[in-house]
């Protein structure tokens, strides 16, 4: 029987898997429920303004980075310059600037805490050294947790003597390393780290797995990018490649049912169209699996995947604004984190991404579009009264925090709308508005991650809940793993 591949979901994970397999000569059909590609990295337009839906800061485009490797394999390299000044991190006590240059970055951070300068330098020296070792595994990109003999063998052959240096840290949190360096009680320093980690690791310094935290704190120095237009361009490049290589891409097709018949998978979309495939890759929120699969198939899923379906992660509240930048004293910076000191959610910490002046893919001359997002807890939205209250309160909190920095900001707004959990569910398919993937804690990361192998024959999963986790890099890596398992080849 000739093998065929059905990919469901054109988020970054599904597009990565589908475009790689199509490039390798596989017959691929990709179904996407939305009219846009990219999932949480897609876009929408309002009049003359284009807004990135969620993900905004480009990563993994440096030489050898995950996206760089994918685009080069596809013959569609995206060549842009990394940011030397990555972002501002505004806290109540100080404003930190994240620089690409490691020495400059550490020097400026340490200057805020002169009495702890030596400890901070030592801490970052360890962070960078650890991240350098971990990053050597990103070239072979072994699967965790390995579940087949082939995956165990590949993991074993990927290891080098230097990786033994990671073993003492394997079951440690960043909190333990901060204590080791005498920095655990340096509140302002920890808050700065927490602000970085919550956006990438979905948890703070107290609980995050140290090995992953080291990579997360170091990776901005490898390369962070402003992508003109937005990260939807990643999706469009891969979608174009898939079609160029004979793949079929169908938008506005929502999967309603996936059944197993003999050696085939039979998928049915909301229009009643039926698709047959020997191999299926699902890039859908794992919480949707019980609606797609029959109960007897759900019962056969691997336990970590079934357990993950029942788990809850963060939801988000997002503001989308268009700004008349002529009313500001200066144009808004590309990327800015703002922490009010009131915690990591509910407007106490949020990420603000602005288009650069002249990026006419996003806004006309004299205007900027802005995406602002904060973490939130699902229980704050579970009644209509709480829903409306949370949306109003969080909007006001974030606008007030920005106005403290930019008094004329509110007066410059020419368009504003919010993306609360129901909007994320409706337009991005995120059940209950849950986004960002699982928190990278010791009990959920690395060997405790959810494998791309579902436990059902020739059915694979990818996306931000699957190893290695959230963000476009994590989603792409899970897509690579799925494509490798289908093809039986490394591909890249």
UniProtKB/TrEMBL annotation:
Tell me the ranges covered by the Amine oxidase domain, including all copies. Answer: 12-486
Protein name per Swiss-Prot or TrEMBL: Oxidoreductase
Please give the superkingdom of this protein's source. Bacteria
Q: SUPFAM superfamilies, per this entry?
A: FAD/NAD(P)-binding domain (SSF51905)
Q: List, alphabetically, the Pfam families matched.
A: Amino_oxidase (PF01593)
Q: Which residues, if any, are the signal sequence? A: none
């Amino acid at each position: 029987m000739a093998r065929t591949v059905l990919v469901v979901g054109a988020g970054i994970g599904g597009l990565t898997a589908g475009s790689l397999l199509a490039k390798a000569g596989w017959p691929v059909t990709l179904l996407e429920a939305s009219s846009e590609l990219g999932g949480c990295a897609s876009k929408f337009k309002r009049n003359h303004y284009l807004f990135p839906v969620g993900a905004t800061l480009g990563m993994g485009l440096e030489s050898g980075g995950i996206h760089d490797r994918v685009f080069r394999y596809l013959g569609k390299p995206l060549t842009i310059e990394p940011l030397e000044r990555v972002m501002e991190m505004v806290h109540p006590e100080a404003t930190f600037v994240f620089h690409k240059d490691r020495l400059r970055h550490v020097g400026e951070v340490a200057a805020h805490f002169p009495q702890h300068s030596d400890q901070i330098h030592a801490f970052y020296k360890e962070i960078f050294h650890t991240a350098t070792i971990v990053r050597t595994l990103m070239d072979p990109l072994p699967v965790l947790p390995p579940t087949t003999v082939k995956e165990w063998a590949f993991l074993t052959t990927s290891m080098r003597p230097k990786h033994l240096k990671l073993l003492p840290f394997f079951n440690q949190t960043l909190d333990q390393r901060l204590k080791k360096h005498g920095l655990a009680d340096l509140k302002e320093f920890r808050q700065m780290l927490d602000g970085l980690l919550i956006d990438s690791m979905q948890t703070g310094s107290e609980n995050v797995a140290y090995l992953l935290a080291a990579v997360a704190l170091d990776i901005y120095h490898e390369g962070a990018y402003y992508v003109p237009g937005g990260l939807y361009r990643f999706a469009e490049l891969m979608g174009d490649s898939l079609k160029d290589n004979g793949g079929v891409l169908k938008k506005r097709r929502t999967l309603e049912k996936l059944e197993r018949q003999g050696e085939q998978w039979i998928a049915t979309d909301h229009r009643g169209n039926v698709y047959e495939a020997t191999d299926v890759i699902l890039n859908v929120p794992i919480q949707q699996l019980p609606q797609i699969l029959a109960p007897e198939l759900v019962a056969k899923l691997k336990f970590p995947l079934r357990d993950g379906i029942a788990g809850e992660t963060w939801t988000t509240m997002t503001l989308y604004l268009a700004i008349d930048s002529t009313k500001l004293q200066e144009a808004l910076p590309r990327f800015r984190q703002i922490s009010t000191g009131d915690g990591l959610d509910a407007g106490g910490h949020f990420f603000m991404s602005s288009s650069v002046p002249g990026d006419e893919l996003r806004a006309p001359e004299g205007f900027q579009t802005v995406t602002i997002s904060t973490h939130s807890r699902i229980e704050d939205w579970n009644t209509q009264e709480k829903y409306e209250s949370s949306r109003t309160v969080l909007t006001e909190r974030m606008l007030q925090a920005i106005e403290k920095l930019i008094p004329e900001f509110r007066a410059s707004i020419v368009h504003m709308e919010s993306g609360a959990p129901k909007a994320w569910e409706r337009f991005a398919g995120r059940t209950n508005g849950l986004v960002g993937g699982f928190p990278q804690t010791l009990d959920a990361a690395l060997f405790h991650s959810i494998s791309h192998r579902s436990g059902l024959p020739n059915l694979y999963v990818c996306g931000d809940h699957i190893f290695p986790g959230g963000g476009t890099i994590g989603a792409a890596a899970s897509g690579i793993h799925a494509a490798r398992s289908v093809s039986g080849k490394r591909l890249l």
